């Protein structure tokens, strides 16, 4: 293994030798290059007492270096491709370096780079080292002052973190801005923007009566698409004060939108940078889901100001400390503002199909990993989504009040410092005087825990009991033997009329039962007849439940469970059973008919006026092929896909009348609003339409065409276009062509157009994708375009990615190899699409493996792609 593929271990953590007292940066920004002067005040860390220092620095052209105003002798430092080592240092000193960097050549989009005609930075996790020599690690916190100098006409806007303290004109047409961030921060939160941008402005008055100036910057052509994001920011600030008592701490809050970004958005102190996908939205060009995502991501980045910025991570292994907690906060924000039940269902649907898949893959890692080669590969579903589930379990165990007490103690103890997941757990435990020692296992053990249950009703004793048995995940990889976890089980029992039964002497109708042992029994006395249990309500723990449950019990829970999540989960379980039944029949060449009870229960849900439309829409959305794959082994993925398609068609034929009537009832021609009621109606209506189109009847194609032509909103328009295209209904090419002509200058809209085509389930789609890659609207340098076209084809077009001639796998491998030279982070994300290969049957595994091996033996792989592929090879 070459030195750039070195493995970093959590156990090797050492405090820094020197702390940074202050940093003064000066940037002279020019079109071809930027000059960066850094003056850094260092002081020895008495705990280490070592007079040597390593400063990270990558791709930097060193112009000069001075220590305490004296030019530094070349024998006092060593320079290599990773950075600068200094020896024989005094206990306190100032280091001044001048370096030159070339942002317009930076295609990795890490450090300082160019987007359109402006410059911007991305420093998390380790991008600051591409800007200047620095101890680029999250536990070195310092106060930053930043001066930016640039041509005034070309770069009128000059932004950095904190508050602007001065600005003015210089000679020769240049100007400057000086920024001071009073809050000590790690280098990964540094940001700078320079360019010609427009902005919209508003303000927020905090509960401490501080007026905060809020601005959203974007290229001027998009300035009319920022209002929703601004309102979302104001809502986030308000919500964090109300629910968490957390108040903003600067006089300005700036957001900048860019079309060129590796991730969703970045929480740099006082200067968030956003993928334009999560800022720009107008009713003519954004779907309901786009609006909802914008609100959530604006919230997420804002909430990081306290959970991430004020209290940050000691090392990158603790990433979930800020990410799991902040995802939990953004989920609660959406739940409080929109529909709590729908939000929970959607989050769990995502967790179960995507995070559970990661947990079962060669990339499986614990919420707090023990090692990595490239930290950028660990911005994962496990760290984010499972991390949030772990935080949610504290909330379940301690209640809202106890959880908030824990949060307060956490800030009291750690504000202004860099800490660990353990510090968070201890704050929760100490604030509530409870022992959460065993809870640590949620951070240290990888994989999805399994819980098996056995129910027993003793009519004579009128006692009902459940045995819970915990088991290790299949691919547990810890060094020590797997141990049972601390698992909260929210539950209720119902009698056969659907009335909840008391669970204890206190008469509680709902309980959080805590599992701690490998096997444990809960007994409820005084139960007159065989009851039905609702377990893990609200998905109270991120586990896989093994429970033998028949369709009668499922139908009962669908009808009577007071927990809306479990009502929905019963629908999903019943649907999974049917699809898997059909799949087995296809494998064995046997007949399988759709059971009557299934269609009846589906009809019942579809027509139930007692349920909110949004929940009906969730209930009639069948489980994803990915989540079904995880319930099986050695899967023939094309047959599984066929089994699901068969069920969709059965529903479409047998419930045509009902689907059409629900479609018509939910057609809403009032003015477009993104409120829960309208969003619910649209999603239910559009799901009905997607079933109807599967029956291949001309009249329903006509219905979709009408919807496309007359839609008063983009959600309806896009759904219709996508359904017509996927069904390849006569004339769909013309619709796509007209759409392109209208929107070719709007990348966000065009990316959707690319995705729709990439996911056509037809044998010529790969050819189409390759043709689309030739268009000027596509660029390998633009991550959104790559995700929309290549990502959509390989990640969401099951029949074509898994084509039997392996063309999909070959295509993916080719793209990974090419992209790795341009943008290793995005290449590594694509490489992750090979990670589920071992879920498939031997023949598929073999064909996927050929391509995985081909990548593995390619010379000059980045550490990013190498780590993913090396784990896949095993
Ligand atoms: N901290 C950001 C996510 C993020 C991570 C890495 C990035 O660049 C490599 C950019 C953003 C968040 O959680 O929103
Ligand atoms: Zn985050």
TrEMBL record:
GO molecular function: alanyl aminopeptidase activity; metallopeptidase activity; zinc ion binding
Listed cofactors: Zn(2+)
Designated name of the protein: Aminopeptidase N
Record field: catalytic activity: Release of an N-terminal amino acid, Xaa-|-Yaa- from a peptide, amide or arylamide. Xaa is preferably Ala, but may be most amino acids including Pro (slow action). When a terminal hydrophobic residue is followed by a prolyl residue, the two may be released as an intact Xaa-Pro dipeptide
Organism per entry: Marinicella litoralis
NCBIfam families: pepN_proteo
GO biological process: proteolysis
Enzyme Commission number, as recorded: 3.4.11.2
Signal peptide: none
Metal-binding in keyword set: yes
Location of the Peptidase M1 membrane alanine aminopeptidase domain: 228-439
Purpose: Aminopeptidase N is involved in the degradation of intracellular peptides generated by protein breakdown during normal growth as well as in response to nutrient starvation.
InterPro entries registered for this protein in UniProt: Aminopeptidase_N-like_N, Aminopeptidase_N-like_N_sf, PepN_Ig-like_sf, Peptidase_M1, Peptidase_M1_dom, Peptidase_M1_pepN, Peptidase_M1_pepN_C, Peptidase_M1_pepN_C_sf
Lineage top rank: taxon: Bacteria
Domain Peptidase M1 alanyl aminopeptidase C-terminal, chain residue ranges per copy: 552-873
SUPFAM superfamilies linked: Leukotriene A4 hydrolase N-terminal domain (SSF63737), Metalloproteases ('zincins'), catalytic domain (SSF55486)
Keywords: Aminopeptidase, Hydrolase, Metal-binding, Metalloprotease, Protease, Zinc
Family to which the UniProt record says this protein belongs: Belongs to the peptidase M1 family.
Name of the top EC class for this enzyme: hydrolase
PANTHER family xref list: PUROMYCIN-SENSITIVE AMINOPEPTIDASE
